[in-house]
Amino acid sequence: MKKSxxxxxxxxxxxxxxxxxxxxxxxxxxxxxxxxxxxxxxWMAAYVEEHGLNANYERFSVGFCYxxxxxxxxxxxxxxxxxxxxxxxxxxxxxxxxxxxxxxxxDSNVLGMPLQYWESTxxxxxxxxxxxxxxxxxxxxxxxxxxxxxxxxTDLPEDYFDEDFFVNSYYSARYMTQIMRTLCEGGEEQFxxxxxxxxxxxxxxxxxxxxxxxxxxxxxxxxxxxxxxxxNDHIAxxxxxxxxxxxxxxxxxxxxxxxxxxxxxEYLADYALELDAKAAQLEADKVAAAQAExxxxxxxxxxxxxxxxxxxxxxxxAPAEQTVPEPIQASKTDGPRWLIPALIAALAVLVLILLLxxxxxxxxxxxxxxxxxRAAARKAAARETADRSRDRDYSPRH
Length: 398
Known about the structure:
Layout: H1 3-32, H2 37-51, E1 59-66, E2 71-75, E3 81-82, H3 88-100, E4 109-110, E5 113-114, H4 115-124, H5 128-138, H6 147-150, H7 163-168, E6 170-171, H8 173-190, H9 194-198, H10 208-211, E7 217-225, E8 231-239, E9 245-252, H11 257-292, H12 339-393
Antiparallel strand pairs: 1-2, 1-9, 3-6, 4-5, 7-8, 8-9
Helix pairs in contact: 1-11, 1-12, 3-5, 3-8, 4-5
């Protein structure tokens, strides 16, 4: 194993050890309901009214997951809409599982092209031929898009799914939010390269309209106009706030849909920061309460029993004089003993978080550079092929 890999795993292990108390607090927060669903419902209702959404033939669905606790919040999230290119994420996850199991690699020949080509072009550039090639390889149908194979990436029962899900690739925001949550939790180990190829997608559009420069976004967009005139435009993303969140917005016949998606994503990202602060405060309150709890008082000693028998009438000797010690005065400089260790632990956690963020940032930048290099190589190859073809077309004829 490389030294860098050992260092990263050691750092991650130390980070987990330090965060065990915080995670315990997060679990307690989940039981109490960390997400204020009433607040989000009211905000969403006001937003929909302000922009005139869900009118006539419009549909506007939102899904949100706070991955620290797994809590989710949904708005009108069980509407079934044509998935457009969102299907490429769960299909790529199916392919990535085969790679994680050792059945495939990025260089494996899949229907005449390396797996790397199909995955990167489908996820980063939403190439339809690449998406269809992976569906064909997996044995799915053109319209069904392997939908029946992907239910296990969610905790939704099979009877939840509409018939159009199986035969026409219709998705709901609830389903897609759970797909992205599974991808986020499985990460590189379970789904190699999927997030890597989503990170450079649409760097200036969709959620990046508002979040670029603040948080990294691994997003998959989809747009498709059905023969009946319905325009489907969707986004599903992992937003890398300090605690990553999942944001899904699915729309049908909604104007300015990218701006609407970006505004929703920005609000939920800011709300996630509030949840982080709330979880930290709950944990701090819990620690303070434990430290402030008084020690149990000692029970008074039992009085000696009266002497029995012939000694009962004897005169009881007076007890010897005892010296009562003066009470020890507490030092005025004494403070809570837990404060300094807690501050040190908090500082250590902050340093580790910054280090992890730096490592992940370098990895993603390197991945983007590799993706750009591969794209440049493909363009160069295409130009070379075109030049050769042109040379043949204009070569002298004998």
